[in-house]
Specification:
Helix content: 25-40%
Strand order of the largest sheet: 20-19-28-29-30-27-32-31
Shape: globular
Largest sheet: 8 strands, mixed
CATH class of the largest domain: Alpha Beta
Number of domains: 4
CATH topology of the largest domain: FAD/NAD(P)-binding domain
CATH superfamily of the largest domain: FAD/NAD(P)-binding domain
Strand content: 15-25%
Number of strands: 34
Number of helices: 24
CATH architecture of the largest domain: 3-Layer(bba) Sandwich
Length: 849
């Protein structure tokens, strides 16, 4: 890479809690320095603490970074070259040198704390590695002196705070070295530490946590790493250790008053000593140069790089918090508030570098495929036949076109001639394609689109999501993500963790008459997580869809906004979608996830000679609101219903202090022009009118309170579509899922959850991508047929059930007594209620708790 400009943008600490983006010089490199153009940075809790403390004032913030080498000092070894992709730890918060932090457009780093990023690892993933790996090595191998092969193969090591970044890396390192790691963390993160390699996980809030660990380790635990370092964490670590005592190593200065056992030898690790120079921070973080720590870090980081390259250590789960240096502040605020759990926050600094890296990864896959095909066509010999040469030329031309198409996305239009000149002419039509395309066209970016795209990405495909609107609006109300949907979302990323951080799980059900008189209740939901593997949780619709979009983009899935589908054309081995404005894209197959008013549905039915009409209005409307959770419900999260004459209200917790509610009433389709999100004046008028109408009919004061305190109000109609038979779910290389094929009214709360099930079952039916085995139209149709025949009967039951429930909820006056009696009887029948939940929530797979 060429030497950059003389200045760079960077985040500098100004005062306590204030860090700003400023322009600073790029310094002259010392002999052991490396200058790196930053692609991404990782955010650590220590970053948030340092910025909040405002010290050292004027210093550059940040520790973890990933990018490309621009230049290097005279003593840097030949293993690092300009253009290499690297990640490392920068000396952020340096009082003596304000040029060395990671939160900068260009990073000045020390050679011994930088290592190369292996092929196949993204910049985002690499940015999760350096600090955690360095800290893990210093704790386990430098301070505890643990060897690679333990003398006792049954030796356990406790990692307190196992779901932290350092904790996850320590668990992996211990597992690799032959030790048996056990961890403490929140129960919602048990799966994370076990995936990393922990043999057991313990809830640190359990009063028996220490005794349980001591029992598991047969009173012989001799090593504990404390990633939290509080009096409470230190006590559990000490109480967990065996009668013979052992080593306790903390990641921060530990409270000496908590040193309660003479048989335990405590110490703590300050990872900044790895730089080998003085650190002029306030006590106890002020230290003299430590050549021993520097030497260990130099050796360890080379070894850690090998572990990452060989797949022995995996990067952390991460979440992107922005795509510019200025967005770092958003992530630091999340860390300061303590809302981050089970994931590493990463911020993109240079979008073009990240995008280019994706293309390089694709080209590497193309080249690997090319090499495999070449070996096959040459028959493994050095003297290919004429047939082999012909095949070789065909593959070369295919590769040329693939390279040209990839590069053309990142070169200006004036470079088209250069691309053609370098990589050959267009493929001759007489030469058949010899490589299948991994590209899948996913239409729609609500719930189903990102989820199915993530599943296909895991199977080796390259999905592209096309969304009709340019930017998501503040539309819709809330969703109840039920156990069947949440089990699917768990496989996409840490969505369950985010949901449970955002709001409580449903723990009770209660049905009332409009007056508030209780018809019946149940605590069955308290066992949802144990019985089905996940609980039920309410969430704002736009929040969950934003998380899913982020999850897809974090996995490198491209999202094209403002692409409205118009028509579809198929060939023998591909499908092309045409969009408004003359845009088009070609892929192997297409998945329609474009919702209730799906264009995909209209196009597929037209192929069968059927006309798809507009969605039909059910005659019911809902006015949905968000209000502070009533005092009567605090500490009792649940789903509650009130049944009146021609009216119904449901509410459930949407966050830890907000409740989502909806009033269902008969309405007319002609009112549609007035539907949507209410402004302040319109909301005030609507609240007054609704409250007066309900009060006049003697409604429960709790419901009146929800209406009167509403901070958000939206009105919409409830629509339906005719049911489709299984053979109408697909056609050729196209298939529909979610509301595009089986839209359901809101009354059962299963729309988004059934969409998740569709994604799971469809992805299960589609084989892993194999460039040597292109999927024929016949194969795809067979796959889609199997999927549709599996799902359609189940979704049909739920769709029809939702329709029936909607009608029953708004019963006319003469039918209310009968309806209320049926509800009371249903709630009293615990076995029957459990069976209804089993029918829905046991799918799409059983997941032990």
């Amino acid at each position: 890479m060429t030497q950059p400009k003389s200045t760079r943008t960077a985040i500098l600490i100004q005062s306590p809690g204030v860090a700003t983006v400023a322009t600073v010089p790029i310094p002259t490199l010392s002999p052991t320095n490396i200058l790196v153009k930053t692609a991404c940075v990782g955010l650590n809790p220590s970053d948030a603490k340092m910025v909040q403390a405002g010290a050292p004032q004027g210093s550059m913030a940040g520790l973890d970074f990933a990018g490309e080498v621009v230049s290097k000092g005279s003593q840097v070894g030949s293993h690092i070259r300009p253009g290499d992709r690297v990640c490392g730890v920068a000396f952020g918060y340096n009082r003596d040198n304000d040029a060395t932090g990671a939160f900068a457009e260009y990073v000045v780093a020390e050679e011994h704390l930088v290592f190369g990023i292996p092929d196949g690892l993204s910049f985002q993933e690499a940015a999760t590695l350096p600090c955690g790996l360095l800290t893990g090595g210093m704790v386990l191998h430098h301070s505890m002196k643990l060897r690679d092969t333990p003398a006792d193969p049954t030796a356990h090591v406790l990692v307190y705070g196992g779901s932290t970044a350092s904790g996850i890396f320590m668990i992996q390192l211990l597992k690799h070295a032959g030790f048996i790691p056990v961890a403490t963390c929140s129960p919602r993160n048990f799966h994370l530490v076990k995936e990393a390699g922990a043999a057991a996980a313990f809830d640190y809030n359990s009063p028996t946590c220490a005794s349980d660990i001591r029992a598991l380790t047969d009173d012989r635990l001799a090593h504990a790493a404390d990633c939290i370092t509080t009096p409470a964490s230190m006590k559990i670590c000490y109480d967990s250790m065996g009668a013979a005592g052992g080593r306790y190593v903390a990641l921060d200065s530990f409270p000496i008053a908590s040193h309660s056992r003479r048989a335990v030898r405590p110490s703590w690790v300050f990872a900044m000593s790895a730089f080998g120079c003085a650190v002029d921070w306030v006590a106890p973080y002020k230290c003299h140069p430590s050549p021993a720590d520097r030497l260990f870090a130099e050796t360890w980081m080379r070894r850690a790089a090998d572990l990452v390259r060989d797949g022995e250590v995996r990067p952390l789960r991460f979440r992107l918090v922005g795509d510019s240096l200025g967005d770092v502040s958003k992530g630091l605020e999340e860390l300061r508030q303590g809302t981050v759990s089970g994931e590493k926050l990463v911020c993109v600094v240079n979008r073009s570098m990240v995008a280019s890296a994706r293309v390089v990864a694709k080209l590497n896959r193309v080249w690997a495929a090319f090499q495999g095909l070449l070996v096959g066509t040459m028959g493994g010999t050095s003297h290919p036949s004429a047939t082999g040469i012909t095949a070789f030329l065909s593959i070369s031309l295919c590769l040329s076109v693939s390279l040209s198409l990839c590069l053309s996305r990142f070169l200006p239009s004036s470079s088209d001639g250069l691309v053609t000149l370098c990589f050959g002419s267009q493929l001759h039509p007489s030469i058949p394609s010899m490589m299948s395309s991994p590209k899948v066209l996913v239409i729609g970016c609500g719930v189903a689109g990102p989820v199915v795209a993530c599943f296909l990405k895991q199977k080796g495909y390259e999905p592209i999501i096309f969304e009709r609107v340019e930017s998501p609006g503040d539309v819709g109300a809330s969703l109840m993500i039920c156990p069947n949907g949440l089990k699917v979302l768990e496989r996409v990323g840490p969505i369950p963790d985010k949901l449970l951080e955002n709001g409580p799980p449903v723990l009770e059900l209660c049905d009332h008459k409009a007056s508030g008189e209780v018809l019946g209740g149940s605590d069955i939901p308290t066992a949802f997580a144990k019985r089905y593997g996940q609980p039920a949780v309410g969430v704002k619709r736009t929040l969950i869809t934003s998380w899913l979009r982020d999850a897809a983009e974090e996995k490198g899935i491209e999202l094209r906004r403002g692409w409205a589908l118009e028509r579809i054309e198929e060939s023998n081995d591909s499908i092309t979608a045409f969009f408004e404005g003359g845009k088009s894209e070609t892929g192997s197959f297409l998945i329609g996830c474009d919702g209730l008013k799906a264009t995909t549905r209209k196009l597929l039915l037209a192929r069968a000679g059927l006309q798809d009409g507009l969605p039909s209005f059910t005659g019911l409307t809902q006015t949905a609101g968000v209000s502070p959770t009533p005092d009567a419900f605090r500490g009792r999260p649940g789903a509650r219903n009130w049944y009146g004459e021609l009216s119904h209200v449901i509410c459930y917790d949407m966050t830890h202090d907000k409740t989502s509610w909806a009033l269902t009433l008969p309405g007319e389709a002609v009112e549609e022009a007035s539907w949507g999100l209410f402004g302040d004046e319109q909301r005030a008028a609507a609240k007054k009118a609704i409250s007066a109408a309900l009060e006049a009919k003697g409604w429960d004061p709790v419901v009146l309170g929800l209406v009167n305190s509403a901070e958000r109000l939206i009105k919409y109609g409830i629509y339906d579509r005719p049911e489709l038979s299984p053979e109408q779910w697909y056609s050729g290389r196209c298939v529909m899922i979610g509301d595009a094929v089986h839209p359901t009214s809101v009354h059962l709360g299963q729309g988004a959850n059934q969409s998740c099930e569709d994604c799971y079952f469809l992805a299960e039916a589609i084989p892993d991508f194999d460039h040597t085995k292109p999927l024929s139209t016949e194969q795809l149709s067979s796959i889609f047929k199997s999927f549709a025949e599996k799902q359609q009967p189940h979704t049909s039951v739920l769709v029809n059930g939702a329709r029936a429930l909607g009608r029953a909820r708004v019963a006319p006056p003469e039918a209310c007594v009968q309806r209320d009696a049926a509800i009371a009887q249903s709630m009293a029948d615990r076995a029957g209620l459990q069976a209804k939940f089993d029918f829905t929530y046991s799918r799409p797979f059983q997941r032990p708790s």
